[in-house]
Amino acid sequence: MIKSSVFKDESTLFPEYVPPKLPHREKQLDQLMRIYRPLFSDKLVSVNSAVVGQAGLGKTATSKLFGQKIQEMSKQFGSKVLFEYMYCSTVRTLPAVLRQIIMKNWKKIPIMGITGNELIIEINDILKRENTRLIIALDDAKLLGGEAIHGLIRSAEYFGYGNAWVSTLIISRPEDWAAHLYPHLIEDVHSVIEFLRYTESELQEILTYRVSLSFYDGLLSQENSNMVAKIASETGNARHGIEILRHAGYLAEKSGEKRITPEMIRIAKNEVYPETSPEILRGLHRHELITALTTATTLKHEVAVPIHKAYEQYCIICEEYQTTPRSKRNFLNYIRVLADIGLINAVVKNLKRGRRTVITLTDIPASVLEERARKLLEKIGKNTFD
Q: Does the pTM of the predicted model rise above 0.70?
């Protein structure tokens, strides 16, 4: 139970892990370091940029590694830079983001009953007293909304030129950036760094590196590692390949084998779906998870389901988990959140007598979504306050 015969360090395959180097993302990392170089000048200016790309292309890992490096660099220059990463699926509003930052770094500062604008002023005053620059990285930033982020960036104007202590790094998918963020932030963001899909050869190098960190020598041959890279190259998604490695490792451990076979890789491929990466599901609130479970159970034998039918099933599942159902209006908001993160599709159909919204699933099988949603709900606990 304690020592694995397969994994040298299983944590290096977890989504939260940031490796010391990122093959084929060195260019983007260097770009970020150059963009935020003004933070080390005498002029207190706000630097704001965006990294844009599809899931699994290294946006989050590159941003976090940049945060580590710029904080290390600030120590060398005798200055102080604070980097705070926020996954917006777990903190849905700008005031919630600011409160989290204050609670983490300045626990004695009161935050209850304070508006978003007052929180910005409070943070700016603290940073000024401590002579510290703050970079806020907002992952899946669309969930905060372009207007809110615009307000945060433009708050620097309130303090006057040369008094901007807060900078931002916006992390987004291309479609969200174009539709929801860029129209509001066109004049605010100085640079946009694009993350392109990985090629098969790039994925081979990335996965070979992760294998060296995670598995014992000889457990996975180069040929089989390249097999995983070929599978992941269909989407260009490195996270997809890393998840396959992790699941194949579990299969080898369970069977008592001392190597990962091609058949284990094939089985792992069928268990891993990029659309339900762990960080996406873990970021959902209780009723959003119940809504995801509702969608899965109603679509097991259906191609699409109308909202009213899904809401009836939602109420039944709430009863199963000893939770009071929310209103239909709230349920529609949960549906919107799941659609925003790409877990489901909400399609409006035109009928002879008006329009009707129906729900469909993306590529993830209903049975897989049901299993994962139930596991997370069990971890939360049936009687947990929601």
A: yes
